[in-house]
UniProtKB/TrEMBL annotation:
Protein's job: Acts on leucine, isoleucine and valine.
Organism of derivation: Pseudobdellovibrio exovorus JSS
UniProt keyword list: Amino-acid biosynthesis, Aminotransferase, Branched-chain amino acid biosynthesis, Pyridoxal phosphate, Transferase
Keyword Membrane part of the UniProt annotation: no
Keyword Amino-acid biosynthesis: yes
Pfam families according to UniProt: Aminotran_4 (PF01063)
Catalytic activity, as annotated: L-isoleucine + 2-oxoglutarate = (S)-3-methyl-2-oxopentanoate + L-glutamate; L-valine + 2-oxoglutarate = 3-methyl-2-oxobutanoate + L-glutamate; L-leucine + 2-oxoglutarate = 4-methyl-2-oxopentanoate + L-glutamate
UniProt name for this protein: branched-chain-amino-acid transaminase
Enzyme superclass (EC): transferase
GO biological process, one term: L-valine biosynthetic process
Family: Belongs to the class-IV pyridoxal-phosphate-dependent aminotransferase family.
Documented EC number(s): 2.6.1.42
Modification type N6-(pyridoxal phosphate)lysine: residues: 195
Amino acid sequence: MKTTISIEKTKSERTRHPEDQLGFGKYFADHMFIAEYSEGSWKEARIVPYGPLSLDPGASVFHYGQALFEGMKAFRGQNDRIHLFRPDFHVRRLAHGAEKLCMPSVPAELFTEAVEALVKVDSSWIPKSEGSALYLRPTLIGTESFLGVRPSQKYLFFIITSPVGPYYSEGFNPVKIWIERSRVRAAVGGLGDIKAGANYAASLAASTAAKKKDFAQVLWLDSMERKYIEEVGTMNVFFKINDEVITPALNGSILAGATRDCVIQLLKSWNIPVTERKISIDEVFDAHKTGQLKEVFGSGTAAVVSSVGELADQDHRITINNNQVGDLTKKLLNEITSIQLGKKSDPFGWVKVLES
Ligand SMILES: Cc1ncc(COP(=O)(O)O)c(C=O)c1O
C-alpha cells in the first residue's frame, strides 16, 4: 500500500542549535507527521509544521491514559545518505503495545512511509557529528471525548523529531545507577513490556529521588520478591561476570529493547557467551565481592551502550571496573554506532538506507 501523505512546509523555520549543544530531547525539527483514526481506518496522513495539537479536554488520553510511543533514530550515514535504524523492530513493538492498550495498530506501511517522508522533509535536521542523531518519537493517543472507562474510538498517530546528542550529561562516561528497593516499575501481566506513557509516569518519583542523590537513573527490581533485576530507567542492563554476559530474561514486565537485541546478536556473533536469565541483585554484589564482576552496561536507543560505573542503595555502594568504560562496553558501542553510520557492514540487516 502506498499511503498518500500531504505535505505542508513551514513558513518560519525553527531555531537551530550547535551540534555540540544539543543535549537530548530539548529541540524539535520543523515538521511533524499526523494521521487520524476513526470508524475503523486511518485517514488524513499529513506532514505539517511542528506545532501544538488541538484536543478536546474530554479526550480519553487525558483521563484513561491510552498513550503509547516509540523511540528510534535516523543518522546521516556514509555518502550523506539517511540511515534509519531498525524501523521494523519499532513497528512491531508499537503494534504489540497497541494490542495491549486496546488501541488500533498503526499499519506497518503507514508507519514506515510516515517515518521516511518526515525524515526526508526534515533531513537538514539530522546532525552529522559523532554521537548525534535525529531521534524520532512516533506516538499513538486516544482522542475521543467521553467520560467512562472504555477504549477510545478515535486516535491520533503523530511523529515528532528531535536532533539529539548523548543521552546522559556524562556523555559516554560511566553513569551512576541507584537500586530502587521500595517502588516498582511494572509487574508481570501489566504494561512493563510496552512503551506505555503510564510506565514512565510510574517511574518519575523514583528517578527524581535518585537524581537528587546524584544518580543518573534507577535500577528496577522485580515486583514480587524485590530481588531480581529488571532494567534501568530507559535501558536494558547487562552484567559481565567473568567471561559471560548476563541480562535479565524477558519476563513480560521488562521492555524488549531494540538495542538489547543488537547487543545479544553481536555477542553471539563474536562467540562471547551471553545468557538471558533471572539475575538477582545479590548475585551481582557477590560477583563484585569476589572480583568476578567485570563490566556493567545499559543498552537503549537514546543511550546506545552506556557504561555503569557505580551501583548503590542505602546499604551498598560498588564501583565497577574502577569507574572506567570496559573494553566490551566500548567494543559494543563502537560496533553498533559504526553499523548505524554505515562505517561497517550490516550483517544483521538493521539499517534501512533511504533513497533520496
Ligand atoms: C524502560 C525502557 N527499557 C529499555 C529501553 C531500551 O529499549 P530500546 O533499545 O528499544 O531503545 C527503553 C528505551 O526505549 C526504555 O524506555
